């Protein structure tokens, strides 16, 4: 199911998030409308491969409307969490929740802190369906991402590594479409630009869907990334979702 699992640090921030997840669970089970307070005003939700929902009010309405589908939530579990070294006011988290009928939903949460208040900035929820998949192809595509980035070719990187319906999320901005991604990655054209990626954690959510977190590194800095890999109809793995700060 997963590899390179690392212990969740028991620091004050992570303990706060554990409590916030419990608060979300209690609010959802008693009054889904109350979960609005768990999200930033312009928060983004991706639910089970659908296009995104934006805004805490819209997210609240979505969960209220789909209450029967998701059912009561019995528990929430965190499997991997990292506080960004490049921005300590951001935390990336992977985990899953179990419903009263023992359905499992795997999630990714991007937390952000403003003036001492941690809230959900982005959330991805996917119904768990399988724990088996051939991930060898993913390693090759990740290497290809690095190769094309270091060749200063965001155009080829976009079309050869990303799925047509991908989403790139960076600093509260959503990019969809190859042209938009090329604009976002235009800094890769700088002659001295070099980067590497190292996977830290992954989990197979469905046979054709994998959550991944890892580190990006260049000569001056390093940071964290999120990737969701999606296997295409031709069997190739491509990036369906990508985020960094």
TrEMBL record:
Top-level taxon: Bacteria
Domain DUF4440 residues, every copy: 138-239
Full protein name: Nuclear transport factor 2 family protein
Transmembrane segments: none
Pfam families assigned: DUF4440
InterPro entries: DUF4440 (IPR027843), NTF2-like_dom_sf (IPR032710)
């Amino acid at each position: 199911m997963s590899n390179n699992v690392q212990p969740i640090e028991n620091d004050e921030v992570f303990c706060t998030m554990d409590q916030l997840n419990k608060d979300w669970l209690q609010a959802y089970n008693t009054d889904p409308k109350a979960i609005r307070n768990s999200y930033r005003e312009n928060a983004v939700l991706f639910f089970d491969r659908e296009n995104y929902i934006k805004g805490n009010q819209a997210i609240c309405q979505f969960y209220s409307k789909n209450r029967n589908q998701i059912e009561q939530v019995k528990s929430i579990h965190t499997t991997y969490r990292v506080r960004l070294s490049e921005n300590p006011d951001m935390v990336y988290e992977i985990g899953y929740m179990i419903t009263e009928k023992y359905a499992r939903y795997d999630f990714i949460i991007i937390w952000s802190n403003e003036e001492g208040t941690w809230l959900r900035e982005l959330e991805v929820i996917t119904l768990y369906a399988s724990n088996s998949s051939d991930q060898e192809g993913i390693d090759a595509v990740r290497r290809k991402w690095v190769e094309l980035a270091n060749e200063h070719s965001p155009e080829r990187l976009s079309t050869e590594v990303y799925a047509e319906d991908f989403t790139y999320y960076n600093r509260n901005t959503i990019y969809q479409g190859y042209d938009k991604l090329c604009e976002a990655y235009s800094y890769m054209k700088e002659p001295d630009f070099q980067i590497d990626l190292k996977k830290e954690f992954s989990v197979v959510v469905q046979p054709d869907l994998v959550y991944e977190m890892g580190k990006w590194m260049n000569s001056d800095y390093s940071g964290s990334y999120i990737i969701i890999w999606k296997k295409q109809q031709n069997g190739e793995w491509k990036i369906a979702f990508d985020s960094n700060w």
